């Protein structure tokens, strides 16, 4: 789904928490998409907590079939930048990446670092629908 986006390179994939944490530390991606449910021991929340403890951490998008309030709150408290429900908000991934990839050298189009700061600020305490609309994402 993301492969056709110019500027997006998929550099890793993992199904277990330990493997995911190691891969993120080794590969240093700009953005990580995590599910809460992973195979084996550990969860996506464990990976999120580990990754966000680092000084330079990637933008983390939780994409899950577990959209319950307690999971959402735990993920946001742990530093998730987005929390999306796979069944109702999956289509939001492309617009999020398109917005993050806007060149920063054009007026009015901040680059990835500025976009992350802006989008991260908008998420706290707001439903995803509200923050996506405020971020210019339909």
Q: What would your notes on this structure say?
A:
This protein is mainly alpha-helical. It has a single domain (17-132), classed as Response regulator (Rossmann fold, 3-Layer(aba) Sandwich), CATH 3.40.50. The protein is built from seven helices and three strands; from the N terminus they run H-E-H-E-H-E-H-H-H-H. A three-stranded parallel β-sheet has the order 1-2-3. The protein starts with 16 loop residues before the first helix and ends with a helix.
Q: For the residues shown, what is the average pLDDT?
A: 79
**Which blocks of ≥5 consecutive residues have pLDDT under 50?**
120-127
Largest sheet: 3 strands, parallel
Radius of gyration of CA atoms, rounded to a whole number:
14 Å
Overall strand count: 3
Q: What is the end-to-end distance?
A: 18 Å
The number of domains is: 1
**Share of residues in helices:** 40-55%
CATH class, please?
A: Alpha Beta
**Architecture, CATH level 2?**
3-Layer(aba) Sandwich
CATH homologous superfamily, by name? Response regulator
Percentage of β-strand residues: 5-15%
Strand order of the largest sheet: 1-2-3
Order of helices and strands: HEHEHEHHHH
Q: Which terms summarize this structure?
A:
single chain; 138 residues; mainly alpha; Rossmann fold; 44% helix; 10% strand
Put the structure in a nutshell.
The chain has 138 residues and is mainly alpha-helical.
List the helices and strands and how they pair.
Blueprint: H1 17-27, E1 31-34, H2 44-52, E2 59-64, H3 69-78, E3 82-85, H4 86-89, H5 93-100, H6 112-123, H7 128-134
Parallel strand pairs: 1-2, 2-3
Helix pairs in contact: 1-2
């Amino acid at each position: 789904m993301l492969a056709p986006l110019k500027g997006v390179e998929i550099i890793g994939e993992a199904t277990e928490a330990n493997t995911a944490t190691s891969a993120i530390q080794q590969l240093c991606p700009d953005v990580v998409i995590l599910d809460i449910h992973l195979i084996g021991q550990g969860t996506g929340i464990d990976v999120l907590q580990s990754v966000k403890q680092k000084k330079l951490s990637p933008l983390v998008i939780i994409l899950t079939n577990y959209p319950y309030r307690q999971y959402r709150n735990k993920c946001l408290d742990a530093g998730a930048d987005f929390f999306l429900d796979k069944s109702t908000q999956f289509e939001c991934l492309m617009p999020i990446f398109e917005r993050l990839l806007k060149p920063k050298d054009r007026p009015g189009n901040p680059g990835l670092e500025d976009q992350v700061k802006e989008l991260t600020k908008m998420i706290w305490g707001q439903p995803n629908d509200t923050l996506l609309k405020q971020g210019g994402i339909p």
